[in-house]
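Input/output pair, single chain:
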Amino acid sequence: MKSIVVTDIELRSRWYANRREKLTVPCGAVLTPAAKDFIRENNITLIYGSEIPEGGFTVDPIPKENGKSLFVDAITGEKLYEKRENYTHLRGNLLVPKTHPQIRFRGRLDSLAAEIIQTQVTANAEGEYELVNALDEILRFTRKILSAEVNDAPFGDLTLLGMNSGELRHRSQNVRESFGIDHPVPSYKQGAVCAALNRLRTCVRETELAAAEAFPNSRIDIIEALNRLSSAVYILYCRKLSGSYGGGRP
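Output:
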């Protein structure tokens, strides 16, 4: 049976959607060490199914040569018979250095997801439950970007916070019209929630720059998605400052 590589990035993109306790992977799947760590750390039960789940994992089989698994340096084309410590899976049996721009981009997405969760912790502590729920949508959108990149699939619908791409851009650029305030200048006086939202906005921008470096001539859909994600976080920041959030219950 041919083996299929399943990486931690792919598992994250599936698990983060609804944090299921069980995940299905194809029969004969080979998990990378990082994938095994991710499963153990999050108490996930793997089910080896006969079919590839909808949406697909990396399905390029690991070929064999002289009885050994054959990997390929995606940059040089060099044959490799074991994964070097400073290399990781790009897709299938294709390996790249961990400093590869696409791997750095995936790392930035991972850090961004962590920052969103930390912002939720801050908002929850301040009783801003409506904002916590809005940040849940921001988090799902971020994980959708990760899934689209890992699976080399189109991003799709750019709707976020009930707004399409054009509406997100318009509201973030026309703050006076949208929220009745001027474009805010960040300050500690705005409080912990606004400080966290502003920091989150800068993290989205850093992730967008990583995407532009990783995909200088492609994946405009991902770069646009990150652009609108930045707009959405700025909108949350302006909503908070203008008093649009009233707390509510989780």
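DSSP finds eight helices and eleven strands in the chain. The longest strand covers residues 22-26.
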